[in-house]
Design goal:
By secondary structure, the protein is an alpha/beta fold. The chain folds into 2 domains: about 100 residues, Orthogonal Bundle (Arc Repressor Mutant, subunit A); about 240 residues, Rossmann fold. Helix content is about 50%, strand content about 15%. It contains 16 helices and 9 strands. The chain has a 7-stranded mixed sheet, with helices on both faces. The chain has a two-stranded antiparallel ribbon with strand order 1-2. α13 links the parallel β6 and β7. α3 crosses α4. Bound molecules: S-adenosylmethionine. S-adenosylmethionine (SAM) binds next to α9.
Length: about 375
């Protein structure tokens, strides 16, 4: 095999370049783990607070062992996340590094995404079996860390943009919410979006639905901590969406592409909406085909990576699951599937503030 492969290699430089590319990915994989460690141990926050600092000063600040902190700092400098002043043997963080790695309140903060990726490592031992049987893993199969990672990944966007930007872009929703509306957030996850809406619109009632016990557990805690009284949580396995056209507004944030039976879900949403109700649907923006994603979608690599580990896996977690995948519900597909369910109005909301999602206002 290697003799044949060697015979096929005409250009040693191309081999070197390809091996270099793969080792760059290997380094990046290890860096995700070590960035997570730094985030969890407060090393970035600590350095952001006291830097420039020596490894001993950072170890003292974080109450960690200096030798471990120093080796971690060396790795962080090599990868370019932390800066080193050789003369002073001090480490520091650029303003950009502080925003992305040390400040959970900053819109550019990536701690949540890093947490999500680390949570996926647990699925590695199950993936070979998934490839053999075709069956994926539900969100709960992936454990609580997965629900936590997703919550951290979507929290900032939902807190910053849902109430101020997205709801006002839908026709009439804000007036109804102000007066008192009945709202469902389907696939509510940890409930962050619903809590934001519940705080902003105290006259309205919110029901969060999620099939993940881990997500519902996190949502319960978050609702309690937020002190909002106008939120209920349901598991649709026991309490499905009512088919009585009672909801003024239904929201889904990154749910349809993950669901095992998306067409059934879309039909259930339609049946539970009032005739003049609105479905605000956020889903991953992508192109209509793999070829287009490959050429035109800068997020294609990360999206297909998430897909194998999480999204397609979730969509295939029961026999007969659709397994749309992370990029499997682009606008063209959303238009097609919602029209098939009987929705007649579909509008893409012209909001460009999210790198992953597109937002649709869908009505009967
Ligand atoms: C990617 S997470 C998004 C969670 C949340 N909306 C957010 O933005 O953080 C997708 C969620 O959809 C839930 N889900 C998938 N299919 C569902 C269904 N048919 N009904 C209700 N929840 C569903 C999953 O359990 C998971 O919590």
């Amino acid at each position: 095999m290697s003799a044949q492969a060697n015979a096929e290699i005409r250009d040693p430089k191309a081999l070197q370049a390809f091996a270099g590319k793969v080792s760059g990915s290997v380094t990046a994989g290890m860096n995700v783990a070590l960035t997570f460690v730094g985030e969890q141990l407060g090393l970035y926050k600590g350095l952001a607070a006291i830097g420039p600092a020596t490894s001993q000063q950072l170890a003292d600040k974080t109450q960690l062992s200096e030798r471990w902190v120093r080796e971690w700092l060396y790795q962080q400098v090599c990868i370019g996340q932390i800066t080193f002043d050789e003369a002073a043997t001090e480490f520091s963080m650029s303003p950009e590094a502080k925003a992305v790695l040390a400040d959970p309140e900053h819109p550019a903060y990536l701690g949540g995404m890093i947490h999500s990726v680390v949570a996926m490592y647990d699925t590695l031992e199950h993936l070979p079996e998934c490839f053999r049987t075709g069956l994926g893993q539900s969100f709960d199969d992936k454990g609580e860390a997965c629900a936590c990672g997703i919550e951290r990944m979507s929290r900032k966007f939902q807190q910053l943009h849902l109430v101020p930007d997205l709801l006002p872009s839908t026709e009439g929703a804000v007036a109804k919410l102000t007066e008192g509306a009945l709202v469902a957030d389907v696939g509510c996850g940890a409930g962050v979006a619903m809590i934001e809406m519940a705080k902003a619109y105290p006259n309205s009632q919110f029901i969060g639905y999620d099939i993940s016990m881990n997500a519902l557990g996190r949502a319960r805690n978050n609702v309690r901590e937020a002190g909002v009284k106008n939120v209920q949580l349901h598991n649709p396995i026991d309490q499905p969406l009512p088919e009585d056209g009672s909801f003024d507004l239904i929201t889904t944030f990154d749910v349809v592409h993950d669901s095992t039976h998306p067409q059934v879900l879309i039909e259930a949403i339609k049946a539970s909406l009032k005739p003049n109700g609105t479905w605000l649907c956020a889903d991953i923006q992508g192109k209509s085909s793999f070829a287009e994603n490959l050429k035109e979608n800068p997020m294609a690599t990360i999206a297909y990576s998430f897909s194998v580990m999480v999204c397609m896996s979730s969509g295939l977690s029961v026999p007969g699951g659709a397994g749309l995948g992370t990029l499997g519900f682009p606008e063209s597909k959303a238009r097609e599937m919602t029209a098939a369910a009987g929705f007649s109005r579909f509008r893409r909301i012209p909001f460009e503030g999210d790198i992953f999602n597109a937002f649709y206002e869908i009505r009967l």
